[in-house]
Every structure is written in C-alpha cells, then in structure tokens.
Amino acid sequence: MKMKKYILLSSLALFVLLLYNCTNPKPIDDLTGTEYSKQVKTIIDNKNKQIQQWYATGMIDSVAMYFTEDCIQLPPNQPPLVGRDNLIKGWKQNIQFGKWIFDLRVQEVKASGDLATELGQYTLTFEPYENAPIPAMSDKGKYVVLWEKTEGDWKIVWDAPVSELPLPIPGSEPGSTDESSQE
Predict the structure, then answer these.
(1) Which of 8, 24, 156, 182 counts the most CB atoms within 10 A of its CB?
(2) Is the distance from CB of 122 to CB of 102 less than 8 angstroms?
(3) Rounded to an integer, what distance in angstroms lies between the CA atom of residue 86 and that of residue 69?
(4) What CATH number belongs to 31-165?
(5) What's the distance, CA 135 to chain centroid?
(6) Alpha-carbon distance 39 to 54, whole Å?
(7) What's the pTM value of the predicted model, to 2 decimals?
(8) Strand, coil or helix: 144
(9) 120-141: string of b/e by CB count within 10 Å (b at 16+)?
(10) 8 A C-beta contact, residue 113 and residue 105
C-alpha cells in the first residue's frame, strides 16, 4: 500500500511540475540561437527608434550613451570616429549645420552571449540650415553594427554604414564644366 501511495504521489508531483513548466516557461538560459536573437532584435529595434529621434532633435549626448567608451563609427567617405568623445565631437559639429533624419530598419540580428551583430538598411536625409556649408542630401544603404552587453545594457561597439549611392563624378554636377570635354 505504501508503494502505491508513493508512486501516486510521485506521479502527481511530476504532473504538477510538468504543468507548471508548460504554463510558465522559464527565461532562456541558452544565450544563443534563434529565440535569443529575436529577443535581442526587439531590444535593438527599440534602441534604434530612440537613436533616430535623438539624431533628428540634435541630442547627440543621448545618442552617445548607446555607444561604448571605445566605440568606432565608420561614416561613409570620412575618417572613423574613434571613442565616444570623438563621436560626440564629430556629431555636434554636424548638427550645427542642419537636421539629420535617419530611418534605421533592422533586417537581422545574430546574438550569442554578450555580443550581437545587427544587419540593416538605412536612409538618411540631411536638411541644412540657412548658410550651411553642406548642401541638402539624401543617402541610403546597408549597415552592420556590433553590439555588446555591458553592465546589463546593450551598447554599440562598431557602427559601419555602407552607402549604396555612388560618389558624384567630378564635373558632373549641375553648372560645372569639365575642361576635358571642352574643345
């Protein structure tokens, strides 16, 4: 009789444990794979929305808080911005000339442990202020960003946009003349 009671109670305990685990899934302990990457992608999507707003409103100090101290940003056709202080300095110079409007679209995130790689598409519109030395422009392309989870928060380590637009050919700008075509 004791054995039947023991088996019945053990079976009941096992059933309750299985039922609890099915209705209350535990957090993912394995910090790799598709599910983990989806979770990190959601975090990055939310951070990118905030970054877009801060760039558009010129809040560069806020943007920089999403970058590590030793970050590297590789803007197209310019020298790299190495370190958070240089990132702030470079972007504060840029925003004095106009409004920078980014649209960042995450295509894929691959995450493992405390590192994640983001692949996405971007568009950029620059609206110059009056007398700005930079003309209005638009750009589009792809980007790769390396994120690192430090002190419980995901931050950008490397940011590498790659423009899809070709550089202008010298002399092809409206109103310019190319001496080699004049005879």
Answers:
(1) 156
(2) yes
(3) 10
(4) 3.10.450.50
(5) 26
(6) 23
(7) 0.75
(8) strand
(9) bebebbbeeeeeeeeeeeeeee
(10) no
Token pair 């970058």 in the structure block, residue: 67
For residue 98, count other CB atoms closer than 10 A to its CB: 19
Contact status, residue 63 vs residue 17, Cβ threshold 8 Å: no
To 10 degrees, the CA torsion angle through 177, 179, 180, 181? Answer: 40
Q: 103 with 122: CB under 8 angstroms?
A: yes
Comparison of pLDDT for 141 and 30, the residue scoring more: 141
Provide the 8-state DSSP code for 180: G
Q: Are 70 and 83 in contact (CB under 8 A)?
A: yes
Q: Using CB atoms within 10 Å of the CB of residue 149, give its burial: 0 to 12 exposed, 13 to 18 middle, 19+ buried.
A: middle
Q: What is the pLDDT of residues 17-61, one digit of tens each?
A: 545 555 554 454 578 789 999 999 999 999 999 999 999 999 999
| 56: phi then psi, degrees, rounded to nearest 5 | -65, -30
* Residue 138 in tokens: 């638009």
Closest Cα to residue 73, out of 8, 142, 143? 143
